[in-house]
């Protein structure tokens, strides 16, 4: 047995990137605090212009609209921290929303079966992506771009130009999307619970920290005995499952569904994750930051509607935020490299 095998390096803590942990953790906290501050300023300015923006109904609408994006961002975070990407989540949401809607409107099944079916379809999509990326070695961008179009085509074939009407959807499913418990809507509650569970897993379990080890340095992770293929497959499977759940919640939230209703959401999800501090090169970030990124992007959309500004600007602003986030990640990487070179020089 080699020395490496006898002394396996411990996977880095979540968000540390396996390097100067204190510096990276400080940057991540700063990024998340910056997003929170931007949210507060955005809401304050908009409320000053239109006081109704911060009404109970306005706040509820923002959280309801953000819930599905948060779910997708949590799943995408698992993939991105392993140095991969999943561009098929928007198409998966659309496929699940229509198929589940079509199924429940033509049968006597209710909420439980609808959720199980949606999660199952999402799991299959995630499993296909994961197998192609982890075991076949096909680049993630190529795989998920391909499955994006395959799922879109399948969705349009199944829909045949028809749509699901809210009047046909069972009330139990609609209640999930628009109901509440103790005044708290179900959708935000589900998203928060999922976010907390995934965040706790990534931080508290060694298998969770291995996702970050893979993203920080795949070669070092391999030498440390991390099951890279299995973890990458798990990341895609989890992303698919959450996309399936999100698709079911989409049906529950809106009731009326056309073919491919979440078209273009894959880029919105990636933007939320990267703006939230998850490095596109992997190894750094948290699901909490990704959720904040999703909330910020959703709030920007609501603000533009309230201020009666052309929706085009939402895409422009999201694109600008994405460029700024990627630039910030690059600057952090360069700063970290300089810190490590100085440290190595002192100990050399």
From TrEMBL:
Key word Ribosomal protein present: no
CDD domains: TM_PBP1_transp_AraH_like (cd06579)
CC per GO annotation: plasma membrane
Primary role: Part of the ABC transporter complex LsrABCD involved in autoinducer 2 (AI-2) import. Probably responsible for the translocation of the substrate across the membrane.
Subcellular location per the Swiss-Prot or TrEMBL entry: Cell membrane
Pfam families associated with the record: BPD_transp_2
Name of the protein: Autoinducer 2 import system permease protein LsrC
Membrane-traversing stretches: 33-50, 62-80, 111-133, 140-159, 179-202, 232-252, 264-284, 291-310, 316-337
Keyword Transmembrane: yes
Protein source organism: Thermomonospora echinospora
Membrane topology according to the record: Multi-pass membrane protein
Quaternary structure (record): The complex is composed of two ATP-binding proteins (LsrA), two transmembrane proteins (LsrC and LsrD) and a solute-binding protein (LsrB).
